[in-house]
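The methods section describes the discrete structure representation at length, but only in general terms. What matters is that the chain and its backbone geometry are given together, residue for residue. Nothing conveys this as quickly as seeing an actual entry. For illustration, here is how one protein appears when written out as sequence plus structure tokens:
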Amino acid sequence: MTTIKTESRKEPLGLRLLAGVERAGNALPHPFWLFWILFGVLAVASWILSSTGIQVVDPSTGDKVGVNNALSVEAIRDLLTGAEESFVTFGPLGTVLIVMLGVAVADRSGLFEVIARRALSNVSPRSVVFAVALGGALSKFLSDSAYVVLIPLGAVAFKAVGRSPMLGMIVAFVSINAAGDANPLIAPGDVVFAKVATEAAHIIDPTLTVRATDNMYFTTVSALVLAITITLVTELILKKREHTLVVDEQHADSANAGAGSTPVLTDAQERRGLRITGLAAMSFIVLLVATILIPGSPLRGAGGEFLESPFLDGIAFFLSLFFLILGSAFAKGSGQLESASDIPRFMADGVRSIAPLIVLFFAVSQFLALFKYTKISTVVAVVGSDSIQGLGIGSVGLFLIVVVAIAMLNLLITSGQALWALVAPVIVPMMMLLETNPATTMALYRIADSCTNSITPMSTSFVLCVGYLQTLNKKAGIGTLISFTLPCALIMFVVWLGLFFAWWALGIPLGPGAPVR
């Protein structure tokens, strides 16, 4: 009998490497447990390092400091009695809760979905890619709901002009993921990033404050540049493979599916709601600006200072109030608001939606409290900066090392806020010792964190997008999505990094009162 040997088809090297990354990432525990594991590792490391007697000069005080042993009896007592305070005073906790109270009203009323849908409707074939890409970049203030709203809308927009709705989904997904941190608007995530950066910067300079507006100029220009980049990559590269994105005949109707789970409104209700919302937004902005401009305004700081003012320091409150007013106005104008008691109900829904984030914050706050107690971050920052200075690496080389290292970590730890909380206590003070502004470090983190989000299967948004693609083509999978997002991610990474280096070379401020150097 003759045995016929058949060669097994091997997957391309790129997909095999990504499969290995997927297995490694799936082996990681939930971020909540990851921080507790790191807590234990840090405690043991502090015991070992404290026994070596290593000391460095604390840049903030000029005193010699060493590593405190977290496993000593006194340390355990301090950490246990301070656990509640560490959690309650954790900067991002209050910020997220305050902002979400307002955002929840706007989201629950359906305002976000209506704005996104109307902005992307009736776009021309020539501008559909740019419109979806820019819409994705601007939608990050919706947080995770941006994916639920924009990915189906991308399909609708592309199908309307005779292009593959699957490509519309991919363009929307990559723009939210990779360009979302270039949002020119101040989003809740920006406030959280700034709070974490401030706490990390206090290791070196207790008086320094990082604000949510510190990257505003850079992100505003970046949003436009990245939207153009996505458009060019789509039209010059991805379009050549668009014919492979075939919608199953039995799933064709899914391309016309709606985006969200918010109440279905008539066109008249939407128009009336948007009209009243526009008036409310204009009134709020005019009143706020007028109040800020008044001499001796309580929203200004001492001597009429704006950058060091209650307005910028308390921007989380004003963001929440803005979204609260807009959401309430839309709900009232569209006939959804039956009584004032509906508003706190919307707020409660929003707080419930971020319960997993609050749970994660508890673990992060205890980890950071231990990090601060042991002073390992100070020692690592000083030793790391001295080592880099000894190597003679210039600023460009240093920036490249930081960006590449964070981008690789982001393939496994896909939560931007969790990763920032993990690396900020080390890289922010280390970069400060190398005379790099925390705002500059935060801008570098945005680049590294964003571009790899669209190519890692460990990301929940990645899995979500694969699920959306499978509603149109049951054979679509991880390889389908990666083969289209990888060119975008790599080219955007290079372009955005190039924009940063040009910005840095020209010495343009990253935001109000935030020099790049």
In short: Residues 90-506 form one domain. The CA atoms of residues 269 and 346 lie 19 Å apart. The first helix runs from residue 13 to 27. The longest strand covers residues 55-57.
